[in-house]
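Hey, resending since the last one bounced:
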Amino acid sequence: MGQNEIKTQVEMHELDERMRKAHKDAYRVRSKNEAAQMRSLTAALASILIVLLAALWFLFGAF
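The structure tokens again:
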């Protein structure tokens, strides 16, 4: 087996490992606690956005 062949096989093995890890991370299941935290964070961010939009509307709509 030539030096280039060994190098190519090592690179392919490393690539395969990275792809397995990426696939596992992409389909990670969230716990109920994590899902609840994400819902509350989303609601808080949506509320902040609504307040900011209302403030901008009040400032620029008043003129």
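The chain has one domain: 3-61.

Sorry for the duplicate.
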